[in-house]
UniProtKB/TrEMBL annotation:
Gene3D superfamilies listed in its UniProt record: SGNH hydrolase
One Gene Ontology MF term: hydrolase activity, acting on ester bonds
Pfam families: Lipase_GDSL
Coiled coil residues, start to end: none
Protein's name in the database: GDSL esterase/lipase
Top-level taxon: Eukaryota
Length: 369
């Protein structure tokens, strides 16, 4: 199966750099594109918001993201990404003048970096969910992704000094990861009080990964926070209610966004501790939440039509969990660039681009590179 998928994989061309990596939160720097990139490669870990094809290459059974109209906007074919086009990681790579990051399972030499992210991946190991009676669809946890990274090490460097030089010139993107850990519990409609108790476990898993990466020489790491999940169509469908007090002025579920804010605050606190511990490294919190929130608060300003998904069918948000985008019966919208949400779970390329630009150009990050 993998050999067939590998034949389908098409090398992606790189666009000209358009913007630079983040400045400090207190600044709003002008857009610059002439400076050379400080990095030679990107190593990425995460879930479907960052996966550029690992699940596509590894899965014994097709996932809905691997059928048209996925990939239609930029690649004009299915690319292994759960979007109509490019992801945030793609725009970050382009901004640095680097090739789009290839999936680890597609090309394992890693000289230009590698993407270990997998659709459905969690920060925590599968046993954590099994012990709590929750079934998850994948075994590709952050631990497994780190193991893949370790498998690459002999091909990249052969001593601590060598590794420190290689990875000192690399950008490490840790996520988005952790969102699925909460999704799997929320989809089962577990109480928010219970899910909050899992936040320290998720953050500890991410912190442990950062310890390992810094230990082998990583010096620049970007750790994204959670998105405003209260605005996600799948959650708006699952937790739909007639109680108007549950929604904010944008139509998003307040309690879910408050949970995302709580998690992001706790994650930032841990990253501050890690930064103090590793003063030689640059550990950056990327605030995907506040970068994305303006799109929902004032969609028309950005050319969007509202909360509905582009590719779906039925219900107030154009989403049906039983008939998802990728099903032949589902007809996508005519113009995905007018939508924030692509399939009810993932974002359109247009939204991904704006979030990436907000993080990079307008400093929704905790530090500069």
């Amino acid at each position: 199966m993998r050999s067939i998928c590998e034949q389908r994989w098409i090398t992606i061309a790189v666009l000209t750099a358009a913007f630079l990596i983040p400045f400090s939160l207190s600044e709003s720097p002008p857009l610059l594109s002439s400076s050379p990139s400080p990095f030679t490669s990107i190593f990425s870990f995460g879930d479907s918001f960052a996966d550029t094809g690992n699940w596509y290459l590894a899965s014994p059974s097709p996932q809905h993201c691997f059928f048209p109209p996925y990939g239609q906007t930029f690649f004009h074919h299915v690319s292994g990404r759960c979007s109509d086009g490019r992801l945030i990681i793609d725009f970050i790579a382009e901004s640095l003048g680097l090739p789009l990051v290839k999936p680890y399972l597609g090309k394992k030499n890693g000289k230009e970096g590698a993407n270990f992210a997998v659709v459905g991946a969690t920060a925590l190991d599968p046993s954590f969910f099994e012990e709590r009676g929750v079934s998850i669809p994948t075994n590709y946890s952050l631990t497994q992704q780190l193991n893949w990274f370790k498998e690459l090490l002999p091909s990249l460097c052969n001593s601590f000094t060598d590794c420190r030089e290689v990875f000192g010139n690399s950008l490490f993107l840790m996520g988005e990861i952790g969102g699925n850990d909460f999704n799997y519990f929320f989809f089962e409609q577990n109480s928010i009080a219970e899910v909050k108790t899992y936040v320290p476990y998720v953050i500890n898993a991410i912190a442990s990964a950062i310890h390992e990466l810094v230990g082998v020489g990583a010096r620049t790491l970007i750790i994204p926070g959670n998105l405003p999940i209260g605005c996600s169509v799948i959650y708006l469908t699952i937790y739909e209610t007639k109680d108007e007090n549950e929604y904010d002025q944008s139509g998003c579920l307040k309690w879910l966004n408050e949970f995302a804010e709580y998690y992001n605050h706790e994650l930032q606190s841990e990253l501050h501790k890690l930064q103090a511990l590793y003063s030689h490294a640059n550990i950056i919190f990327a605030d995907y939440y506040n970068a994305a929130l303006p799109l929902y608060r004032d969609p028309t300003k950005f050319g969007f039509s509202g909360l509905k998904a582009c590719c779906g069918m039925g219900g107030p948000y154009n989403f049906n969990a039983s008939v998802k985008c990728g099903d032949p019966r589902v007809i996508p919208c005519d113009d995905p660039s007018k939508y924030i949400g692509w399939d009810g779970i993932h974002l359109t390329e247009a939204a991904n681009k704006l979030i990436a630009q907000a993080v990079i150009k307008w400093s929704y990050s905790s530090s500069s590179i």
